[in-house]
Structures are given as C-alpha cells and as structure tokens.
UniProtKB/TrEMBL annotation:
It is found in: Cell membrane. Coiled coil: none annotated. This is Multidrug efflux MFS transporter. The keyword Aminoacyl-tRNA synthetase does not apply. Keywords: Membrane, Transmembrane, Transmembrane helix, Transport. It holds the Pfam family MFS_1. It comes from Paenibacillus agricola. Its main location: membrane. The chain crosses the membrane at residues 34-58, 100-118, 124-141, 162-184, 204-226.
Length: 243
C-alpha cells in the first residue's frame, strides 16, 4: 500500500514540474516499453532459476554448501562460463548485430531451462551442464538486449532511461525470487507433467522450471515483435531522410 501511494505521488510530482528528471514522454516510446518488459521477464526468469537451484540441489540431491561435490561445485562452471561469454557476446554484437545475438541467447536460455527440466531427479552433473548452456544464453541476451534498448533512445535520453532499465532489472530479481519462494509453498503446482518424476517435492521444481521456459518463450516472441517494429521504424527514418 505504501509503495502504491509513493508511486502515485511520484507520478503527480513529476507532472507538476516543467523539467522533471524523469520525462514522462519516455514511456510513450513503444520500443522502449517493450524492451524494458522483455528485459524484466528474462531477468526475472534467470534470477528465479538461480534462486531455485540451490534449494533444489539441497532438497532433492542432499547437497550442501561445504562438502566436495557441493552446491557451489555444480553452479561454478556456469558462473565462469557467463563471465567469459560476456566479452565474446559484445564482439559478436558488433559483427552480427543485436538481433542475431539476442535470439541466440534466448534460445540458449530456453535450451538450458529445458535441460534442467529433463534432468531433475537424474544425475546432478546434467544440471551443471545445463547451467553452462543457460548462463551462456544469459550473457549473450543481457548484452544484446541492453544494446537494443539503448538504440531506441535519443542521445539526451540514454542516461536516465538506461538507469531506469537497470532499476527494472533489480526489481525483476526481487519480484521473481519472492514469487518463486511463495510458489514453493503452494500445493497446486505438485501435479505430474514429467514422465520420470513422481515425487511431490520434485514436481514443484519441475513445474516451476516449465513455467520459466514459458516466460522465456514469451520474451522471445516479444523480442521478435520488437525487432520487426524497430526495423520498420529505421526504414521509415531512412526514407524520410532520403526524401
């Protein structure tokens, strides 16, 4: 309730000033709006999975944080891969463009989630391999989506707009993990959709992972619409300059 009241006050406050630090016209840019939503969905899905995995490894595989073959050992290869792929992704963006890199990244994230979904209750190192794929996709998508969103803005809008974009990603992290924690406690997600998983405790993780796959597929479709609209806007701009 306090957050809602603060949001309403802020909306009224910035409209009352001739030169607010956050221009309301920014949200009239449809490409920027879609880009923020895509980033929000993708980041919330990734952070939700990173929140769920340690819990899943502890509860289903009896791994701890302080033994050989521990939770950290399973997640470490993926973290290293994400760090290494960030620079590679920036180079590919320059050569291939943001659209190619974003679709590649989202495809790898979806594949990583699908491999985790298949691997639950199976050999734990399959999950480690799936995390490598997922983190590769995240490194690619994060770089290219940020570049895509910034390309929709004018020079004097980039600073505050990308700051707001980053704030949205932090909110996505908090909201995604909070919702995942809440969903772990409900029973309606414990229904069988996986032919090899029948334990009630495992079913919740299976179905939450499937939900994250759907979120990434939704993000991919939205990015398809985003890139097509951005291309049309770019072509119209080029034609107007030519005339």
């Amino acid at each position: 309730m306090c957050s809602l009241a603060a949001g309403i006050w802020f909306a009224i406050h910035i409209r009352a000033h001739a030169y607010p630090f956050l221009q309301t016209t920014l949200f009239k840019n449809p490409l920027y709006r879609i880009g923020v939503i895509i980033g929000f969905l993708m980041f919330s899905a990734i952070m939700t999975m990173m929140f769920l995995l340690p819990l899943m490894l502890f509860q289903l595989y009896a791994l701890s944080a302080d033994t050989i073959g521990s939770i950290g050992s399973v997640m470490f290869p993926g973290a290293i891969c994400a760090a290494l792929c960030g620079k590679i992704a920036r180079n590919i963006v320059v050569k291939k463009g943001t659209r190619y890199v974003t679709f590649t990244g989202l495809g790898l994230i979806a594949l990583g989630f699908a491999l985790i979904w298949i691997s639950i209750d199976q050999w734990v190192w399959w999950i480690a391999a799936a995390l490598v794929v997922m983190n590769m996709g995240y490194a690619f998508s994060q770089t290219s989506i940020t570049e895509s969103v910034s390309s929709t803005l004018r020079g004097n809008q980039i600073g505050i707009s990308m700051g707001l974009f980053s704030l949205g990603m932090f909110i996505a992290q908090a909201l995604g993990t909070a919702m995942a924690a809440k969903l772990l406690d409900v029973s309606f997600l414990a229904f069988p959709l996986h032919s090899f998983v029948m334990e009630k405790q495992s079913l919740v993780y299976v179905n939450l992972t499937l939900l994250m796959i759907l979120v990434i597929l939704c993000s991919s479709f939205m990015y398809f619409l985003f890139s097509r609209r951005a291309s049309q806007t770019s072509n119209l701009g080029a034609e107007s300059h030519g005339n």
